[in-house]
Specification:
By secondary structure, the protein is of the alpha/beta class. Helices cover 43% and strands 16% of the residues. The protein contains 13 helices and 11 strands. Strands 8-7-9-10-6-11 form a 6-stranded parallel beta sheet, with helices on both faces. Strands 1-3-2 form a 3-stranded antiparallel beta sheet, with helices on both faces. It has a two-stranded antiparallel ribbon with strand order 4-5. Strand 9, helix 11 and strand 10 form a beta-alpha-beta unit. Helix 3 runs parallel beside helix 5 and helix 4 packs across helix 5.
Length: 352
Amino acid sequence: MARKFSRSHEDAARNDWQGALRTDPHRGDQQRRARIEIEFDEQTVLGALFGQFDQNLVQIENRLGVYISARGNKAVIEGPDDAVARARDVLKGMHQRLRAGHEVDAGAVESLIMMSHEPTLEGIITGAPEGAPPIMIRTRKKTIVPRSATQIEYMRALVRDDVIFALGPAGTGKTYLAVAQAVAQLISGSVQRLILSRPAVEAGERLGFLPGDMKEKVDPYLRPLYDALYDCMPPEQVERRLASGEIEIAPIAFMRGRTLADAFVILDEAQNTTPMQMKMFLTRFGQNSRMVICGDPKQTDLPGGTAASGLNDAVNRLDGVDGIGMVRFKVADVVRHPIVGRIVEAYEGKDE
């Protein structure tokens, strides 16, 4: 059913599609044919909406098994009724994002397609009920909007809760969104410091044998945090705030004995902490602070013989405690290339 269409042969392709739909004896009531027309009032964004050579429309066709014909400011969608409804909502979501000044690339289209499984897509697209401000994170370099239903839940938790556990596979935006929220709060002045940490488990946090000064020793393990930071702030501002101490990036061992007040604190790769390290980290929490703990409980790199993961231990102890939010991402929430989600799903299915 999933085909790429040449726009110069669209009528023939539509006739072939309709003929297959009529003659296939295996189609049930869920495959009833539907046809809807959408008209877009903001014509200046239509080029970006449809994509070069209609590539965005082809992506929706291939993923949802529908046929889309676009002429002028109108698009006609034909196919199974449930798929047509999903394609309509995806196109509306793309149009709203473009009108709000956001880019729509293949990743954004894929995210909207994935979110169209949810029954409340209209709320997901706008990020909030009608009349309420949309859910987004504004930084100096970009405005970030949610790309999955769980990301909406997560972004709300980042504003609401004092301590947030973000659990799930790689590629779901756990760390990236936490860094973006931290940067936004640092810029607005609601916190005075941004502290990013992760366990240097590959070196067992015994860093003395590595060459270079302390920064050179630990930087390779903290590179993902730097990448997210530079994506949200201009490089010169990152360097200036690192030099002044407003932004601090350090292994978890450096947190011992401190009280982290007026700070947004992020612990990445938390599944690689021991229970004692996690307890030490959580008890650093100070006044006017927010703490985010990101990790994948299924992907620990702790060496053999080490105690159980501190992340799993903390989740078991703290789930349901007032002021602590738990956001659980699934394979369907992966917002990298679609093949990443399939790889994660294959590995998790094999493990189970």
